[in-house]
Amino acid sequence: MPVRILAIESSCDETSAAICEDGKISSNIIANQKIHEQYGGVVPELASRAHMQNIVPVVDAALKKSSLTLDKIDAVGYTQSPGLIGSLLVGGQFAKSISFSRNIPLIAVHHMQAHVLANLIEDPAPNFPFLCLTVSGGHTQIVVCESPYSMKIIGETIDDAAGEAFDKSAKLLGLPYPGGPLIDQYAASGNHTRFNFPKPQIEGLNFSFSGLKTSILYFLEHAGKTFSYKPELKVSQIEKEHFIQTNLNDLCASIQHRIITILLEKLKRAVEETGIKSVCLAGGVSANKGLRQAFNELALVEGWQPYIPAFEYCTDNAAMIAITAYHKFLAKDFTPLSQTSSAKANW
Ligand code: KG4
Ligand code: ZN
Fold first, then answer.
1. Most CB contacts within 10 A, which of 108, 185, 214, 327?
2. Which pLDDT does position 164 carry in this prediction?
3. For residue 286, which ligand has an atom nearest its CA?
């Protein structure tokens, strides 16, 4: 009999349910919450309420897509941390009630570990050990992955995450939330060499993106004359908007290029320091077409074996929770019903 896992992801603003059968994903249903767009960011209370509305139909759709009923499920996985606490609680309590009522194991999953293991969904999957650059809305990490159960962070951001850098840059350009995918879209028709945004000088394998955000702010406020604060060069709001409008594609391409070069330079260094040449991308920002292309080109030049999850497994999804829960199931790593959800990212 195959091992069948139902998994639920509800850490932020996507309600998702997936089914993994013997390590293969047979359904991955994602309900996006459009309600947050009008507020320019995720509103936690509205996210929890939307999860409450979505969770039953989403789980039901996942079971139907896999032609299964609950009595055929061997274990239930869920995102335990990190995330918005109200959102985590909806998915966590739902998973616990299924585990309790069907008397099947409960498996708590760490969201960032799941982003990394999304790479195991694809065929061929990377061999262990591999390196993973995980770039999401809340995290930027370089992880050495020794096995599904053993991971070590060797580099991370000291301020903003890469996804935050995309979203905050987009906000400065007047684009709606979440701006990352829009920057990706406009960048495709832009010239990335047009504006040379400054690069942060951070030692080792850590990242920093807050300086880039500040230089973009000044650059726009000075209509492209300087990256640093010069009050005498500040232009009016109308001039600033005109500058953005007439240069939007090149601005997006140049900002995206700078974020990509910051990420890939550190990744290259991590490969040199660890000697591990199986290299993966993960997290929402790995859906970025410019990053995917630059990563594959670098891998070719450097002789790495590159792996990137399919688009639907990059941004938040329950398939990555299901594959992680499957490996925990094999290791009999089960969770007591008394386990609480946690907003914090304890690794
Ligand atoms: O992994 P994820 O879905 O959620 C978190 O765990 O945070 O990542 C969301 C982030 C957002 O910042 C979003 O703007 C960014 O991923 N993102 C992108 C693209 N698609 C999603 N950033 C750049 N280009 C994209 N195509
Ligand atoms: Zn995520």
1. 108
2. 95
3. 1
